Amino acid sequence: MLPPLGSFDFHIEPYICDFTGQATLPVMAGFILDSASIHAQQRGFGFEHISRDGIAWVLSRLSMEIYRYPISNEDIIVETWIEDISRFFTQRCFRFVSREKETLGYARSIWAAINVETRRPVDINAWRPDLSDYIIPDRECPVGKMEKIHPVDSLEPVMGYAVRYSDIDINRHMNSKKYIEHAVNAFDLQMFRENIIGKFEIVYLAEGRFGDKLKLYLKEQTDNESIIDTKRGEESVCRSRIIWKRAT
Q1: Model-level pTM?
Q2: Average pLDDT, the chain
Q3: Among the CATH numbers 3.10.129.10, 3.40.250.10, 3.30.70.270, 3.90.1150.10, which is that of 1-145?
């Protein structure tokens, strides 16, 4: 049996950095998805294994706190572990670490296992009771429980897009990273010249499908807090919260 904690190496190639020379928030989210996928696959509950049961893992919520974004050509480590398993959800945590053992940030995620035919959640403990062997309940993850993100009632969207081929993943819905990419695209370059994203939260409410026409609505809660509501018509597909901090 492999240890419950997974540790994976990533290199920050120049082409995945933005104009500041740092990895972007969507890139960091991609590392989270890669780490979760590899960790699960190595331990026997990844896509290849659970698809035989007609089951898929679906990301429900993600909260990230980044203290420092890694820079071009830097090597980092992403640690991941399962903190808890309830009937319908698992909580998976992450820690970003530099080669010099500097903690760059943390993330907390909530996943559901769904039946790919009915699209309904399955009882995880009844389906795979062996997953409890990989729980690490007391490892530090300072990212707190996500607060509710309220809908945005703006009359005019800040941007819109149609879901296309490159947005769709192996589960035939919009890839969870794509929502994050579009959320940060709701802001202009000046925002990123003056600020960085210190905390990002997203809740996935419905599945985006090929051909869907989505619109993003923005509300500035405070000087440093932004809410983005991604809608399909009147229905919220996902909602995000960004907490900004001044760039140094």
Answers
A1: 0.95
A2: 96
A3: 3.10.129.10
